[in-house]
Design goal:
By secondary structure, the chain is mainly alpha-helical. Helix content is 72%, strand content 4%. Pfam families: VTT_dom.
Length: 226
């Protein structure tokens, strides 16, 4: 069900931009969050829910949200592979940041311990914990976790993660459309929050990367092949 232009008011330009804009944002965010340190600072979960709500306002939203779910899964798996390779090439010595909020030795130790204790299942669980989701592939690659097992676990996690959040947003958006004035208000708030969260995240990333580098040795945190 699509909202009327009158109900959407000044928010119509975002909706008329169509699925292309949503696809670009979602695939970019998901890939970056799963592949690179920058992804630690991006609002990935809220972005997927927001994308689902926006899709509910589009005439072809139902078909698009399912296709986007597949696209987001592929982007997540591809990002994880890049993250794994980056960690593998880095080797046992990862670079943390002194006084870093996320990229610190404590968080790297937590992820390494999680992988060491739970292996395959840790990669599944990591998908639902934002900062772990980004660090996990890199730590797994650096610690030498079996690549095949990592790929299977990260793929299963992506199949569950992306569609669940997108569909939550989509069906919530369908419900919101029952109240004509509520949908545009919620969209404005959610998109504004996403933009602000992204801007603050990039700012925090720049601050964190400006901190002095600190070596983190994974020699004592070898991940078993579970």
């Amino acid at each position: 069900m699509a909202s009327t232009p009158q109900a959407l008011g000044s928010f119509e330009p975002l909706i008329s931009a169509g699925p292309a804009l949503v696809w670009t944002v979602v695939l970019t965010f998901v890939f970056l969050e799963c592949a690179f340190i920058l992804g630690l600072f991006l609002p990935g979960d809220s972005m997927l829910i927001t994308a689902g709500v926006v899709m509910a306002s589009h005439a072809t939203g139902e078909a698009q949200v399912w296709l986007l779910s597949v696209g987001a899964m592929v982007a997540a798996v591809a990002g994880n592979q890049i993250g794994y390779v980056v960690g593998e090439r880095t080797g046992q010595h990862l670079v943390a940041r002194k006084n870093g909020r996320y990229i610190n030795t404590e968080n790297l130790s937590r992820v390494a311990e999680l992988l060491q204790r739970h292996g395959f299942f840790a990669v599944l669980v990591a998908r639902w914990i934002p900062w772990v989701r980004t660090l996990c592939p890199m730590v797994a690659g650096a610690a030498g976790m079996d690549h095949r097992r990592f790929t299977i676990a990260s793929t299963i996690g992506a199949i569950i993660w992306a569609p669940v959040l997108l569909l939550i947003g989509y069906y919530a958006g369908n419900f919101l459309q029952r109240v004509s004035w509520l949908m545009p208000v919620v969209l404005v708030v959610m998109v504004a929050g996403l933009v602000i969260g992204t801007a603050l995240g990039i700012r925090q990333y720049r601050r964190e990367m400006a901190q002095p580098a600190e070596d983190f040795d994974l020699d004592a945190a070898t991940v078993p092949e579970r």
